[in-house]
Amino acid sequence: MTNIRRGTKGAIALTAATALVLGLGACSKGETSTAPASGADGGKVTIEMWDYLGQGVSNTAMEAAVKAFEEAHPNYTIKRTSFAYGDLAKSIVQGGVGGAVPDIAVVDVVDNQNFAALGLLKDLTEMEGSKSGEFHPGPWTSTQMDGKTFGLPLNSNNLALYYNKTLLDAAGVAVPTTWDELATASKAAASGDVSGLAISAVKNEQGTFQFLPFVWQTGGDLADYETSGAEALAYLKGLIDSGAVSPAVANYSQEDARTQFTAGKVAMMMNGPWELQNMADVTFEWGVAQLPKGKESATGLGGENVVVLEQGKQAAAAVEFAEFLTGAEGAKIYCDESGQLSARPDLAGKLKLSSDPNLKVFEDQLAFAHARAYGKQYAKVSEAVQVSIQEALTGAASPADAAKRAAAEITPLLETRK
């Protein structure tokens, strides 16, 4: 689902699953549907589907999309099983070894390439590879590996800047739109026990997710992390040294940043659209703006993709279902019911959420959202980035030295993508 409190755990969950797959048995799971087995209902074809969307509006939304597909395709029935978030990746990897996999699955975008690297996903290039123009570049990139297509984007999210207008007005500063303005506004708004800006720089995938936009905003990427990473780390360390940002951000989760923001203890925070529901009871005036621009605009991409399993029994039917879910009709049903952002430009301004000015910020940012699509060794790449963040922000190493050490680990890992 869009919630990055789930979504950024994907690389960690899949790494653990890959390591444990040969020694663990199948996980327990709870089915959200009791559709009959294939051939047991008047010759209907049963498509087995796995996801982690079994709670709340995400579940309701997927049920609505499934119902619409079944009504339009009476020869198909969907047998849907929903797992706890942390169990899905592990179950797919284990199922791949034992031959017990679904036909189709909805997975975290950060896991798409990892599953493909393990040989678990059907190559959709011949059927779907020409559809890049139907999706925003970031979501589409998350489905690609070695020039081939291994999934289709369902929904997306990204990071934007939440701001406390009351605190910014009191400090006499406007909502920042550039790095220089962000530094100035953060410093001006910091006073007493109130910080200017909160981010999540904790040593896990949330930290990577929140830090990489600064790298991309330098105009660089992980391929030149020694320079782009050093620049991004130096900028954030400068904010800490100036008193604009609390050094505690090195341990902040995204939830911690939100807690500080809603309590009025920080003037701005980087966070995603999943936090909007937590803003209903705040007592100050607030809003959402695009992330301040460095040399260029950039934000990080999260969300879900639909994948077809290589060992699934109903590949052709699964592809047809995937096309429906990620097409304009199915994606609109799912996104309207769940309040998620669509990965499709043709749905921009056409969803229920599009009338909300705060959600519209996230929708607009999809045009320059970057996927964490760094190939088969992404979990190790992310870990190296996390170490550099911790070293630089805590003062254990200079930003330049931290980035240089991380780059030495990252560069050969990126080579495995070629």
How does this structure look, described?
This protein is an alpha/beta fold and 418 residues long. It is 45% helix and 16% strand. The strands form 3 sheets. Strands 1, 2, 3, 4, 7, 12, 13 and 14 form an 8-stranded mixed β-sheet that branches. A 4-stranded mixed β-sheet has the order 9-10-8-11. Strand 2, helix 3 and strand 3 form a beta-alpha-beta unit. Helix 11 packs antiparallel against helix 17, helix 13 packs across helix 14 and helix 16 packs antiparallel against helix 17. The longest helix is centred in the first third of the chain and has 17 residues. The N terminus is likely disordered.
Keywords, please?
eight-stranded mixed sheet, single chain, 17 helices, alpha/beta, 45% helix
Q: SSE layout and pairings?
A:
Layout: H1 4-7, H2 10-20, E1 30-31, E2 45-51, H3 56-72, E3 76-82, H4 85-98, E4 104-108, H5 109-117, H6 125-128, H7 137-141, E5 144-145, E6 148-149, E7 152-158, E8 160-164, H8 165-171, H9 179-189, E9 195-198, H10 205-217, H11 225-241, H12 254-262, E10 266-271, E11 286-289, E12 299-308, H13 315-326, H14 328-338, E13 341-342, H15 357-365, E14 369-370, H16 378-394, H17 399-415
Parallel strand pairs: 2-3, 2-4, 9-10, 12-14
Antiparallel strand pairs: 1-3, 4-12, 5-6, 7-12, 7-13, 8-10, 8-11
